[in-house]
Design brief:
four-stranded antiparallel sheet; globular; five-stranded mixed sheet; 16 strands; 8% helix; mainly beta; single chain
């Protein structure tokens, strides 16, 4: 009996210790989805560099305390402001046993003006508790190593001509008669192509490939035969390892309509 009691006391002691070191759970914040870190870029050639931080899963009553949003390193990132949006999810009534219902969730987007390379702690208060998201800023480099279109620009790589300083960019070339046209894209390290497409609005002609998988990489797109009498819109969308995106649009215009 004494041995049994000693074992029981030991087990109870272990349980007490376990509960004493377990972190407490804030039930009010249970639905919040807050990233402890996020990433952005600083492009010295761009007129404005902006990074965003999203805080989602809030209830109607939960709000970021006014004046609590701060940056620990304004030389890297300065708070511009934040917006709150409501998202509605509805369930339709399909039979006599089901009920129609709606639920709402709320999301904040904090905007940070990026002023340099480095990192800064973005802090904000919700329900009296302070949360922190570390914003890491790297120097922006082109996401493209090379990009070519058979029969366009003499089939040469024109990635060096693309300027991402204004965000998404557009390149203009003359349309041409091209048999078995092919788009080839090689992204730089840390980036991958998630969508490639070629469209002709006049004929409804469209070729496209989409893959958001990190293992299945998009490298080329066969676009059939191009004709000089039509305009084409070729787009390439890339994302990096932090889900930042960049987009290139190549406009192939009939020679008479090409102003450049």
């Amino acid at each position: 009996m004494k041995i049994y009691l000693k074992k029981l006391i030991a087990v109870l002691a272990a349980v007490i210790i376990l509960f004493s070191v377990s972190p407490s759970i804030n039930t009010q914040a249970a639905g919040l989805r807050i990233k402890t870190k996020t990433y952005g870029y600083f492009n010295p050639r761009a007129k404005k560099n902006v990074a965003t931080i999203e805080v989602s899963g809030l209830t109607k009553a939960q709000k970021i305390t006014k004046g609590s949003v701060k940056s620990s390193n304004p030389a890297v990132g300065k708070i511009m402001g934040y917006t709150r949006r409501a998202y509605r999810s509805s369930t339709a009534k399909v039979d006599s046993k089901s009920k129609k219902s709606s639920t709402y969730s709320y999301t904040y987007t904090i905007r940070v003006k990026v002023l340099g390379v480095g990192n800064t702690n973005i802090t904000y208060d919700i329900d009296g508790q302070t949360y922190t998201t570390v914003l890491y800023i790297d120097e922006f480099k082109s996401p493209l190593q090379s990009i070519t279109v058979k029969g366009i620009n003499s089939g040469e790589d024109f990635s060096s001509k693309i300027d991402f300083s204004k965000g998404n960019t557009v390149m203009n070339f003359d349309s041409a008669d091209v048999k078995k046209a092919k788009l080839k894209v090689t992204p730089n390290t840390g980036w991958r192509v998630v969508r490639m497409s070629c469209e002709n609005e006049s004929t409804g002609y469209e070729y496209s490939k989409v893959s958001y998988s990190k293992s299945k990489k998009l490298k080329s797109l066969s676009m059939g035969n191009l004709k000089a009498k039509y305009d084409y819109y070729i787009t390439v969308t890339l994302v990096d390892d932090y889900n930042n995106s960049a987009k290139v649009t190549i406009q192939l215009q009939t020679p008479s309509g090409n102003k450049l």
